[in-house]
Amino acid sequence: MAKVKKAELDLSTEEKIKEAASIVFTKKGYGNARTRDIAEEAGINLALLNYYFRSKEKLFQIVMAERIEKLFGVLAPILNDASTTLDEKLEKITENYVDMLLEHPDLPIFVLSEIRSNPEQLANRVQAPKILKESAFVKQLMERRSDINPLHFIINLLGMNLFPFVAKPVLQPILGSEDFYRQMMVQRKKLIPVWMKLMLDHG
Question: 1 falls in which pLDDT band (50, 70, 90)?
């Protein structure tokens, strides 16, 4: 029982540190972030942080890998699902992204800002060309609209999903309250697939 509780405590502390690291890296960037800042954000002492993660670089690599997987990992299972239609895939991708980003609104800012500094992070972890080329999604898209470059279509889809979260600091003051911003994002779960289908049918 004691071992189970210790394992649970270790996991809880690790997650707390990783969440704190994500916040600090997002605010300050990797270069300006200090392990002391992360420890303070997590509400722990610096020695405990160093016990779990030996260095800022190691902590960053772990956090970055998990965030990239979270941000782009939702795509592959949906794109490769041959049992769903193209329209259903559009709905699933949008629903999954909006739900995830409402829960983790700083995620795209963190990942995209760091990828600008180190683009190999994304290339090494997300095999986008292979995933797209071999996916059921692209085959279905080509059957429906062979004149559309799949990359343009994916860029439009991801842009519609990600941009309102990347631009939240600009949008929220315009929209007013956090509640209204969230309502708008939830509404987009239904609107984005409609707009993408219009591109397919009338583009």
Answer: very low
Residues 175 and 129 in one domain: yes
Q: With a cut of 70, say whether residue 6 has pLDDT above it.
A: no
Which CATH number do you get for residue 20?
1.10.10.60
Q: How high is the pLDDT of residue 164?
A: 93
Helix (H, G, I), strand (E, B) or coil at 146: coil
pLDDT of residue 74: 82
Q: Is residue 93 part of a domain?
A: yes
Asked, for residue 59, whether it belongs to a domain, the answer is no
CA 149 to chain centre: 24
DSSP 176: -
The identity of residue 159, as a single letter, is: G
**Do 39 and 64 meet the contact criterion of CB atoms below 8 Å apart?**
no
Residues 27 and 50 in one domain: yes
Q: How confident is the model at residue 87 (pLDDT cuts 50, 70, 90)?
A: very high
Q: Can you tell me the distance from the alpha carbon of 91 to that of 193, in angstroms, rounded to the nearest whole number? A: 6
Residue 103 forms part of a structural domain? yes
Inter-CA distances, 100 with 36, 73, 191, Å: 29, 11, 17
- Whether pTM > 0.85 for this model: the answer is no
Q: Is 126 left (phi over 0), alpha (psi -120 to 50) or beta?
A: beta
